[in-house]
Amino acid sequence: MKTRTIKSVFLGMITALTTTFASAQAGGSENPFMDRDYWASHPSIADIDAKIAEGYSITEANRGGFDPTTFAIFGGNPVATIDHLIEKGNDVNKRTHDSRTYIFWAASRGDLDVMKHLVKKGAKTDLKDSHGYSLTQFTAAGGQTDPKIYDFLIENGADLKNEKDHDGRNVLLVAAPRVKNLDLIDYFISKGLSLDATDDHGNGIFNIAAQGGNIDVLKALVAKGVSIEKNAKTNENAILFASRGGRGSSNGIEVFEYLEELGLNANITSKDGTNPLHNVSRSSDNLAIYDYFIDKGVNPNATDKEGNTPLLNAAMRNKLEVIEYLAQKTDNINHTNKEGHSVLTLAIQNNSGEVVNYLISQGAKTDVLDKNGNNLAYYLFATRGNPRDFDEKVEALRKAGFDFKKRQPDDSTIWHLAIAKNNLELLKKVESFGANINAKDDQGNTVLHYAAMKSSNTDTLKYLIANGADTKATTEFGETAYDLAQENELLGQNNMSLAFLN
Question: Mean pLDDT over residues 472-501, rounded?
Fold first, then answer.
């Protein structure tokens, strides 16, 4: 059911602009409290208060959910500083990035003094983050090995045996890929956990530890008699786990060779269709590893349950040389997954202009549509932050005959896509695409209507009007851009005159 106005549609967008407004209040400069270098310098409380007095917000958060207090904890600031930030309006149990409270961040960096103070201030120790991690599990996931941290958490209610993440892993299993030796593993065993524990998918500690690629740890686990067998439930083995690597990192050939020595098969495919090439293609740029697995019989054209091939996975963010390597071993450069994404779709959205140019040169089609009917222009803007290599990608698509005037299934034009980025310079580039600036999407709104709802100043509105945007056009609720702008709190708080819209 539609509401009286369309203002509520963009409530989330307006909230995301609070950082912009806070900066505008302080003379248009960026908030120093959102700069990690500021907190790395361990500023005095007097300096913090002086900046607050200048109008900078001490409570705001960026798009990732990080706020000044989290940055202060990352910077190793003293307890007195953290306490001051909490007293200035940051609730001790405030949810930040991935729904983590401040004690999560303090524990993960081993700051026991701050942890103790946060507990005294009322920090809860029984919360979970958005990944299902308890406080002890997130601490272990961050690589923290100091037993004093875990002793303190146990003293304050941590239940190591029963705390499980979304995959059913206890803290012992969560820690396994990150440990450098078995000291922490032995500590958890001394607290009643077992080396025979498995997650909800049937994976034991050896498979999970293999993802970290620490051969010394794996050898120590073998010496303790842990199972290295293939998981019968998922048809996964330690080699498949090792191929995943860590966040943004990958394991070397020596890890896979060691696991093969134990009798594990490198040509392994899980029940969901994932093989080692699907995993390494997400992050590894070591072509020797690709050769290694292909020599072992791993299929570079295999599709997983979502229809993704190794090339599609690589297209999201891997380097050009990896894209070139896999493209030469791919049977169909225009294969699409179940979402209708081709390798070019994913490269347009996430990768570089040079990758886009290469794929087009290899026959990647520019008229591909996803399962909802969205074309490549949609993915040019469907990015976190501003599009990467925008001009280069646009030029590549134009040379290939792509029509930027075509609408998306919701009738949105390139103007509508661009306004969502809230970037005037990017919006100016769209002018040359030739799309109708007064076209309405299926909600009955023009780009000027959306600009009136989400802009924090009048520059974008004036630019659109100067380029033909109709101030008299109305939404399906009969509202003009002037009506919508009057309800825009950011414009009101910045005392922007709206007479030019009326």
Answer: 90
